[in-house]
Each structure stands twice: as C-alpha cells, then as structure tokens.
Specification:
alpha/beta, Rossmann fold, 4 domains
Length: 472
C-alpha cells in the first residue's frame, strides 16, 4: 500500500499480545500503529512528529497511570478532533456513558472481532457530514422482547411479526431478511423465546465476520489434523446447539461449498465435520438471517437456488425504517424509556420538534441507528426533554440532504416554455408532472395519486390518455 494512503493509530495498552493482535489487524486495513504503554507516554507522544499525524486513538480501559475516562478527557482537550475508542471487557452501560461524556467516539467490547475493529476505526475517521450514516457510539442496549412488546404499527412490520409468531411454534428453519439494523436478531430472539426450545440457549454465528476458510470449521467443526494448524479436534457451533437453536447471521456471505453443506444439514439433519469420515445427526432449530434478499442473490448467481427455495416457506421480511416512519415517534419514546433505566441516565421526554426531525431523516442504519442516535443525545441532555439542540449532527445531515435535494429538483424541474418562448400545451406539462411524480415516489402509484391530489383510477386514466407507460 502506498505511503500516502496509510492512516496512523495510537494504541495505548500494556498487554503485548493484545497490542500485536490489534496492530496486525489494523495493518491489513491500511493503518500504521504506534504504541504507548501508559498515559504519560501517550500524552507526551501527542506532541511528537508521529503524534501530529494521528488519525485515531485506541486505549484499553485498564491503561496504567490514569483513570481511563480522565485520560480520554485529557487527550480530547489536547486534540479535540481526534477520534478516541475505548477497549474494555465490561458491558456496563454506566462505563459507556462515562467514556462518551469524557469524549470517547466509540466503545468496543473484548474479545474484539476483527471486522468490528476495522468498522469502528473506519467509521470514526469518516467525515462528520456524511449523509448516509451516523457513527455508532456504543454497543446497542438489548434485551429480549415478546412479539406483543415490539413497537410498530406499520402493516408490513405487523405482517412480518405475524409470520414470525407462527413460525416460532414450529420446528422448521426460518429465514429473516432485511437491511442491516432493522432488528433481525431481535426477531430471531423472540422466535427462540416463544419456541418449544426456549429453555435451551440460542447459539449465534455471524458468517460475515468469519473468513471463508474458517466458516466450515466454525459451523460444522473439524477433526484433529484435518488441515494445517488443526492441532486439536473442534466441536462446531451446530453440534453445540444440539436440542437448541442456532442463528446464522449474514447467511448471504456463505461460500458456495458451505451453502451446499448447510442445505444438506437442513434437509437431513446430518452434519459432517471437516476431516471426519462419517456424518452424524444433530437435532437443531435453524434461524438464518440475510441483509440482502436471497432471490436477488440467486438471480445474479451468487447463492444456491435450491437453498433459497428450501428456506422460502418460512420467510420473514422486515421493512426498513424509512418505510415505516409512522413508527418513529413510538420507537423514540420506547428507546428513551429503556435508556433511562441504564445506570447514570435519567428519564427524558422528547419535544415535537425533535420528533419531527427524527421523522424527516431516512435512517439508512434503520432502528439500530435510531437507538444509537437517541442514546448519544440522551447522554448530553441536561433538561427533562430531548430537543433538537441535542441532535445537532442529525440537523446538519438534514440540511446537507436538503441542499442536495434542492439541487436535484432544480435539475429535473418541469419546463413551462417551449424553445420558441411560448407556453407548452397543458397536456405536455401535466404529463411531465406525472412522470416526475412516478420517478420521485419510485413507481408507488397509490402514493403518486395521493401526492397529486387525485384518485388512483383517475391517475391510471390520465396515464392512458397522455400516453405514459404504466410503470407501477
């Protein structure tokens, strides 16, 4: 990698093994790491030539020489724009609150998955005015919910919950599809909690966070000497989920060979560890989740049509938050109530202006992004209610989006005059307006008709009269 593309990371930690691991992982993603064993060394290094080139800092909670939150505050006072990530084994929300109030950008739980580290570093160093995402500030606050407790009245969402509740009572495999952050794991946990296997554990495997060369071993296990480095026999997650439930997340990342093995396990109940001479039966309930519709992957040849077809009988499609914006006020109040129960937090209401701002954003990170945004805002809220003042980052994103939208609208506006300077015929202008509306609302003809203030039947009649192709 070219020198100019390298980013520079300071790692404040006194554990050699952990330092080597993080340095190696960061190096693969284009980061050069400098080490500081204690707080005094870290502060002194900020003023060096290397320190002036830093793009991010990671510090361990137990760094010698200072309280971690005090060190974060000191580093932030000296370099306000520098992202700081805390690394810890603690899952305490109180520690997350204290770290972020001190100035931390993110809060990472050990043991740290490689993809989580790189994602956190990349997110922390992206520009603040990105319109496609807000940085995650901490691990999400999670607790299992029953189906009746899930917030949302949007028809698509309620239909998905109905399918999930029915599937929970059976034993057949379940496929949950939806964009990242829509709540697939929440639905999976609710299915497990409502199933006959509720008293058994739910085993999780994130296929997107494991290299393709290790996925078979992770899922199915391996025998000793099955491949170079296999010094001991390993029991796979499927076998450890005997009489229980396994959730395989990001199943769309499975390589072709693993898809075939998984299909065989789903159809027959038998698995065969890598290097094992024989297969054996496992009694396991499978829940699979995908960020991308499997039909789409089958169409482009990257997923097994047979496996997708096998899973289609129990398909739960979770809509993105932008398609259920009417649920945002209830979701916001629900999340604020849960946040208030966390150590160090207090009860907060929310103003109508803040609700309007939340409802206006498209939330590419979906429900998880909304929760993270509210958690970050609640940390710094001084009053009894969350206002737009606690959501400046979101307001900036909305202003940027509005500017972009204005430019777009200026470029695609309806022309009123012909080249000779005279007004165009009304039918031509009306046809352009309808085409513009169809494109703007992505062919959703009910919405097009509503926005134009006409009935759906009237809209279709005008399409025919004006010679506009029906794109619904």
């Amino acid at each position: 990698m070219a020198e100019e593309k390298l980013r520079h990371l300071m790692l404040i930690d006194d554990e050699p093994a952990q330092c080597r691991l993080i340095s190696a992982l960061a190096s693969k993603a284009g980061w050069r790491t400098i080490m500081a064993r204690d707080s005094e060394t870290a502060i002194a290094m900020l003023g060096t030539q290397q320190g002036m080139c830093l793009d991010a800092i990671i510090l361990d909670q137990w760094v010698p020489g200072d309280d971690s939150t005090k060190l974060i505050a000191e580093l932030k006072s000296r370099r306000p724009a520098l992202p700081i990530l805390m690394l810890t084994t603690s899952t305490s929300p109180l520690l997350a609150v204290e770290a972020m109030r001190a100035g931390a950008t993110d809060y990472l739980i050990k043991p740290l998955a490689p993809h989580r580290l790189i994602a956190a570093l990349n997110a922390a160093t992206e520009r603040q005015d990105r319109v496609d995402e807000l940085r995650p500030m901490t691990e999400k606050i999670s607790s299992p919910l029953d189906f009746d407790e899930m917030i949302g009245s949007a028809p698509q969402f309620r239909a998905a919950l109905a399918v999930a509740a029915k599937a929970a009572r059976g034993h057949a495999p379940v496929l949950i599809e939806g964009e990242s952050g829509v709540g697939k794991e929440m639905i999976a946990r609710a299915i497990h909690a409502s199933s006959p296997r509720a008293k058994s554990p739910l085993r999780l495997v994130n296929a997107g966070g494991i290299s393709s060369g290790h996925l078979d071993s992770q899922l199915f296990g391996h025998e000793r000497d099955a491949f170079p480095g296999a010094f001991d026999r390993h029991i796979g997650t499927i076998q450890r989920a005997e009489n229980a439930t396994i959730l395989i997340d990001e199943v769309d990342h499975l390589p072709e060979e693993t898809q075939e093995k998984l299909l065989r396990a789903l159809q027959t109940g038998y698995i065969q560890p890598v290097g094992a001479p024989n297969a054996f039966q496992c009694d396991v309930r499978y829940i699979l989740a995908s960020n991308v519709p499997l039909k789409q992957l089958v169409a482009n040849g990257s997923f097994s049509a047979e496996l997708a077809q096998f899973l289609s009988s129990n398909l739960i499609a979770i809509p993105p938050l932008r398609d259920r914006k009417g649920d945002i006020p209830a979701l916001a109040r629900h999340f604020l109530a849960r946040i208030a129960d966390q150590p160090g937090m207090h009860a907060l209401g929310i103003t109508q202006d803040a609700i309007d701002l939340l409802s206006a954003y498209d939330w590419p990170g979906n429900v998880r992004q909304l929760q993270t945004t509210l958690f970050r805002a609640a940390i710094f809220a001084d009053g009894d209610a969350l206002t737009t003042n606690e959501l400046p980052h979101l307001a900036n994103l909305m202003r940027d989006t509005a500017k972009t939208s204005t430019n777009i609208h200026e470029g695609i506006g309806v022309t009123l005059y012909s080249d000779d300077g005279n007004l165009r015929p009304l039918e031509e202008i009306e046809a352009d307006v309808i085409r513009l509306a169809i494109g703007h609302y992505r062919g959703k003809m009910t919405e097009v008709a509503r926005r134009l203030g006409i009935g759906r039947s009237t809209l279709y009649r005008k399409l025919s009269e004006l010679g506009i192709d029906n794109v619904a």
